[in-house]
Amino acid sequence: MRKPIIAGNWKMNMTPAEAEQLIVELIPLVKDAACDVVVCPPYVDLAVVGKLLVGTNIKLGAQSIHWAPKGAFTGEISADMLLAMGVSYAIVGHSERRQYFGETDETVNKRAKAALEANITPIICVGESLEQRENGVTDTIVSKQTVAAFAGFSAEEAERCVIAYEPIWAIGTGKTATSEDANATIKVIRDAIAGVYGAKVADAVRIQYGGSMNPKNASELMAMPAIDGGLIGGASLKSEDFSKVVHF
Ligand code: 13P
């Protein structure tokens, strides 16, 4: 059985003071969670949030990670820097990074590999645009993104990854994929993993849904057999909303 995992992607929101307030509110609300709980604040909040999370059941995540250990990579962050903050998860290849910051399947693969080598769990994002969905190429796109993200990974490394299926048209729009569509596409992603590593590895990988997931639709989405969790944007910025999703 795969343990459900609910992660909050704060994106470019929350100053350190705001982050502190949100986390102080959140800790008691999710302390009895049956699933894994992760928050992914902006880098400048990691220190304050990381300190507050010590001894709690909430894990700390970052919103990206660079593949090089150090060096001339302005604006980037290394695995060692994240480890020093207490980070144990890193989002990799979010569609906003792919769309606005030139992230490619190749850089996603390099970032995920660096995370795995540092014992940080990559949350690898895949998902189709509206145009791709309308053109009927969703399955091809998500399969290709998944296989490319895992390129060169051993079976043991593949098993340690989390995937977030985030249809781009559902992000921040209030439009959610139907639970049936999300379930079906996640099955396609799992089949793509099985095609490379076999069913045993594919069955171990946790695959989240992301895209306008909120307290109202979380239970229906989480009831689908293929959906193992959620990557939550907007609804992760309010402690009560996020805790309701955690308690789907
Ligand atoms: P929203 O929940 O705001 O749609 O964002 C989803 C997302 O992109 C999480 O990574």
Note the main sheet.
8 strands, parallel, barrel
Mean pLDDT: 97
CATH C-level label: Alpha Beta
Percent helix among the residues?
40-55%
- How much of the sequence lies in strands comes to 15-25%
**Order of H and E elements:** EHEHEHEHHEHHHEHHEHEH
Strand order of the largest sheet: 1-2-3-4-5-6-7-8
Overall domain count: 1
Supply the CATH architecture: Alpha-Beta Barrel
Protein structure class: alpha/beta
Q: Please work out how many helical segments DSSP would assign.
A: 12
**Count of distinct strands:** 8
Ligands, ions, cofactors: 1,3-dihydroxyacetonephosphate
CATH superfamily: Aldolase class I
Radius of gyration: 17 Å
Distance between the termini: 18 Å
Work out the oligomeric state of the chains in this entry.
single chain
The third-level CATH topology is: TIM Barrel
- Overall 3D shape: globular
Report on the structure:
- With 248 residues, the protein is an alpha/beta fold.
- It has one domain: Aldolase class I (TIM Barrel).
- Helix content is 44%, strand content 16%.
- It contains twelve helices and eight strands.
- An eight-stranded parallel barrel has the order 1-2-3-4-5-6-7-8, surrounded by five helices.
- The longest helix is centred in the C-terminal third of the chain and has 19 residues, at 179-197.
- The chain is globular.
- The site of 1,3-dihydroxyacetonephosphate (13P) has 14 residues, from strand 8.
